[in-house]
Amino acid sequence: MSHNFFKIGAAAALTVTGLSAATSVKTVSASSFKTAIKRVRIKYLPGQGVRIWTNYNNGQFMGFRAKDGTEWNIAQTAIDKSGNLWYKVGTREWIEARYTEDIENPKPAKTKKPKKTKNPVVQILDKTAKNVAAKKKKTAEKKADDQAQAQKPEVKKNDKVAAPTKPTALKNTVKKTNKIKKAKSIVTNTLNKLNKASTPAQKPASQQAPSVSTVTKLNAIVSLAKQQVGKPYIWGGVGPDNYDCSGLVQYVYGHAAGVNMPRVTADQVRVGQTVPMDQLKPGDLIYWGSTTSPYHVAIYVGNDQYVSAATPDQGVALQKLTTYYYPTIAKRVL
């Protein structure tokens, strides 16, 4: 693909704009280079876009604009004859650097460790052990006082009273309390081991095997997507005779799996769970551009291939993933 961004940009602009606003100058969201020298954000008038040119010296306006606030990967920099800095964002697409700002890598947010809560059974044992120990201690102290009163000798005048000795019953109570605490500790450790043994480690969602019904739906999605290859690309097309990129996804998911997908890519990317690019499965959706407002979407069909309504020239095509034109995010709907 000699001019990937230009071709995909046409589909992207129409997809992002949707059915409600079609203008002669199209607006795209972002370009995708897996390997980039830096990343920038468009800083222009709100709601407007910076023009994209074919070259940094005497280039021509391509009819596309980089929307204000979107983020872009930069593959190359250059200085024009007037000394202005330019950024390359596609195979032959350039924007002026003065309308951008560098994006710094954000510091990861500190996460608080969750507070550990005791097992309900252990909490009951704790409370019971404390009540038993307190009750026995109180009983022993009362018994010791009674014994001390009974054994107290009669005191005569001018006789010195000897200091009372510590009752042995209280010592016995302390020993019993320590035994209860030790027993409680043994029970707690045993319960913890049992809980760990009975709770299997859950695999991440991207590694869990799909159910039989889900596999059937995914196979139907891949099959129906491949059947659309060769049909024409038309902006706003939702099938079955012609499509744009998001219209193809909506048609295939709806007819093959009964899933009602949103109409445009900016809404479709919010459906499903994000999965790593090295764990793609047939039926997953892959997107290009911004991770929150992408400009292009395709259906992954396995073997590093995908089906998408690419451009008016290409139509619906079966294409292969490349490191140069690489998706930015993947979603698993089923």
What does this entry look like structurally?
By secondary structure, the protein is of the alpha+beta class. It has six helices and 15 strands. The strands form four sheets. Strands 10-15-11-12-13-14 form a six-stranded antiparallel sheet. The protein has a three-stranded mixed sheet with strand order 1-4-3. It has a three-stranded antiparallel sheet with strand order 5-2-9, with no helix packed on it. Strand 11 and strand 12 form a beta hairpin. Helix 2 packs antiparallel against helix 3 and helix 4 (212-227) packs across helix 5. The protein is elongated. The two termini are 31 Å apart. Mean pLDDT is 79; it is low at 1-25.
Mean of all residue-level pLDDT scores: 79
Count the DSSP helices: 6
Terminal residue distance: 31 Å
The helix fraction, in percent, is 25-40%
Series of secondary-structure elements, N-terminal to C-terminal: HEEEEEEEEEHHHHHEEEEEE
Describe the global form: elongated
Rounded Rg: 36 Å
Q: What is the β-strand count?
A: 15
Task: Please summarize the sheet with the most strands.
Answer: 6 strands, antiparallel
Order of strands, widest sheet: 10-15-11-12-13-14
Strand content: 15-25%
What class, by secondary structure content?
alpha+beta
Instruction: Enumerate the spans where pLDDT stays under 50 for 5 or more consecutive residues.
Output: 1-25
